[in-house]
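call fold(seq) -> tokens
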Amino acid sequence: MHNLGILVSGRGSNFVAIADSIDAGRIADARIAVVISNKADAAGIATARQRGLNALVIPSKGKPREEHDREIASALKQHTVDLVCLAGYMRLLSPWFVQQFPRRILNIHPSLLPAFPGLEAQEQACVYGVKVSGCSVHFVDEELDHGAIVVQKTVPVLDTDDEHTLAARILEQEHIAYTEAIRIVLGGNYEVRGRRLAKLSQKAEGRVQK
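ret:
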């Protein structure tokens, strides 16, 4: 059984999608061991408690980044987390934190990386006039929205779109993409070659690559 740790700062819709996929058997042999937020009023924490999950608030306000990250890492390790999933976690992780969980942190971003990293990706896509956008699930490394990409989903940008309508359609694909990415990573049936993640059909499944 693989233990997932989910980090949220807001409503946590991707967290809910992951939990629903586990409950429905779309992500096999996995459980959410702990949900952690840096904000006490995060709706995702309330949802986690309603679902009977371990939910922790570890406030970040006024703390140096690495000090807070050490508290988060300690809680994740206490719950023997195998894979960390960022689900609307609105804090940059320190290099120290990333090094504690090498290729064991996933993030989802509402663009086809490397296009439009950072904040307001959907608005950037509309302003730039691209015809196709989407979402990317990627490993987290020490750079912003930079790690090897695990799964991408495309979404057409309509002439009538603004950032809100585009964001809503991208979010639907995010929920699908995150489940697929978690299955790939937990299956261990891949290797990362440079920046490229390659699936390996001959490789034994059932473990997270270290």
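Confidence is low (pLDDT under 50) at residues 203-207.
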